[in-house]
UniProtKB/TrEMBL annotation:
CDD domains: HMA
Matches recorded under InterPro entries: HMA_dom, HMA_dom_sf
SUPFAM superfamilies for the chain: HMA, heavy metal-associated domain (SSF55008)
Domain HMA: 2-66
Protein name: Cation transporter
Gene3D superfamilies on file: 3.30.70.100
Length: 67
């Protein structure tokens, strides 16, 4: 399993947490939002999911991914 931390802008309240984590989980990865730091820690199998796919589902939920 690969681990990475993604910087996310646009999280305005704690209700953003389940939206982001749910979207990441739906594509077969694990996500844990750190609201205070504006980050998402992710764990994923690179043979099944790429980091670019994780970033894309975060963007589709309306957040900005800082690269």
């Amino acid at each position: 399993m690969k681990e990475a931390t993604v910087q996310v802008q646009g999280m305005t309240c704690r209700s953003c947490i389940p939206r982001i984590e749910g979207a990441i989980n739906a594509i077969g990865a694990e996500g844990h939002v750190n609201f205070e730091q504006g980050t998402v820690d992710v764990r994923f199998d690179e043979e099944k999911v790429q980091i670019s796919e994780i970033e894309e589902v975060i963007r589709k939920k309306g957040y900005n991914v800082v690269e």
